[in-house]
Specification:
By secondary structure, the protein is an alpha+beta fold. It has two domains: about 60 residues, no CATH class; about 70 residues, no CATH class. Helix content is about 45%, strand content about 15%. A hairpin with a 6-residue loop joins strand 3 and strand 4. It is extended.
């Protein structure tokens, strides 16, 4: 399963093959993980865009989206020890850091951003031209495919 990718609600074979991931403490291979091909990334972005525009998500009120983020934070809390052990094995960091920083921090970040969902309000900066229509429009960037740093 680890060499497969989860795209559009389905496990699919990784088009880019696989790479081993190592336990930094022992040098032993933990598992081979799937690597996405360009076609896999395109499929994932397409699936994400479809999901973003689906009424099941797009139709949610901000408070409902916040509730989902709060629920995810609670799930992180419920699986705290398991996630900490996985993080330690994957990164080689001390278990105390995984428990108190990595996993606890993940749940705290989810709660922080869930709280903002109902706090964002519109503001418009003044301009020096009288009798001119001006406004600030904030909207999501949308779907992105990114490689993010993990350390």
């Amino acid at each position: 399963m680890a060499t497969r990718l989860f795209i559009d609600g389905q496990w699919t074979t990784a088009g880019g093959g696989s790479l081993p991931t190592y336990d930094p403490a022992t040098g032993q291979v933990i598992e081979d993980v799937g690597t996405a091909s360009a076609a896999d990334v395109d499929a994932a972005v397409g699936a994400a865009r479809k999901a973003l525009n689906d009424p099941a998500w797009a139709g949610l009120l901000p408070v409902q989206r916040a509730a989902l983020l709060f629920k995810l934070a609670s799930l992180v809390d419920a699986h705290h020890e398991e996630l900490a052990a996985l993080e330690t094995r994957d990164q080689g960091q001390p278990i105390g850091i995984s428990r108190q920083v990595s996993v606890t921090g993940a749940a705290e970040h989810l709660r922080y951003f869930a709280g903002w969902v109902t706090k964002i309000q519109g503001t418009t900066n003044p301009v020096s031209y009288p009798d001119t229509l001006h406004y600030t429009r904030r909207e999501p960037v949308g779907v992105n495919a990114l490689i993010t740093p993990w350390n």
